[in-house]
Amino acid sequence: MSVPGVPTDDDPELELPCGETVDVREFDLNTSEIDCECGEAHGVVYDTDPLTRFIPEQMAHTLEETVKPRETDHTFGTLHAVGMLADEVPQTVASTDASEIGEVGFNYVWVSDFTAREVHVLLVQLLVDLMDHAVDQVGDDSIKSAFAERLDGLDVEEFVDEYRTQRSFDGPDDTAV
What InterPro entries would the database entry show (predicted)? Predict the structure, then answer.
């Protein structure tokens, strides 16, 4: 019989980017960051996290409606956003498929060398870049100009700090913005 927190040969372990390992059963869906044995904090993202964990509902809805993933049965979401991050900095993101482990409550988990806040900043920047690229493909110069003007005043770090404060990630009242 296994004892919680004590790995056995049957426990699925994830090797983190720092080289430490963690049993995926130890992840809690309310956790966005773990303190590691290496002494650093690592940001954690689950496939069950809505895209609104990182961006406002209206922006998430716009991306869901306009970005068409190759998989026709999926809408653009956290899975795709974190995939962009993993593609951008692959050596800093570890992931595992936990879909066969029914007790964990998620199918995929990603753990990064970055803190939860740093992951948030990187994801927002990647999503802004994605939107900027999409707008560039539009033939309407007025749309391009309007978007460029809005981007001009965007401080991603400030946006993330305000968004995280509004969302109260550490409190019990995380609500949509």
Answer: DUF5815
